[in-house]
Amino acid sequence: MTERELIEGCLRGERAAQEELFRRYSGKMLAVCRRYARHEMEAEDLLQEAFIRVFDRLSQFKHQGSFEGWIRRIVVHTVLKHFRKASTQREQIGLPEFVEGEYIDPSALQHLQEEELLKLIAALPDGYRLVFNLYAIEGYSHKEIAQLLGIGESTSRSQFLKARKTLQAQLRKLLSIFV
Fold it and tell me: Which terminus of the chain is more exposed, N or C, with fewer CB under 10 A?
């Protein structure tokens, strides 16, 4: 079934088309949700909520650009709405002092599994995690992030830097096990 046929079947309310659309895209979108969520159940709830929105807005897709990209934007916006509602994106914590010039040898990262990296990202405070994912993984600019989250551009930059420093410190600690 082509993408267009799949979309048209969903718009006609065909259950098989809806199940196929979910099956085809849910794995990738769950990975997006996991990057933002604090735990697996939250990621699954976010995925469910996002796909409800996908089906509700399916008639708005104009077949211009990537359908997967369109779904991804809905997923990201669903996640952001969730965190805005919970008012947790402005969370502030104290960070250990970061020593400028410290870096992690990229070859040491070979020892880490993707799952371990995702756990480190998931352990970040909500505000740091949101900005880090939006900037480093989704590719949004700080100006776009500021608009999405209702914060200043400087706050977005600051949250990203703090997230990066926190991850670097956690990676140093974790990688010291392998050295």
Answer: C
* pTM of structure: 0.70
- Give the DSSP letter of residue 62: -
The band of 98, judged by pLDDT with boundaries at 50, 70 and 90, is very low
Question: pLDDT digits over 118-150, tens only?
Answer: 888 888 998 899 999 999 988 999 999 999 888
Domain boundaries, the chain: 3-86, 106-175
Burial of 48 (0-12, 13-18, 19+ CB in 10 A): middle
Closest-CA residue to 140 (of 126, 130, 150, 128) = 130
| Class of domain 106-175 (CATH, top level) | mainly alpha
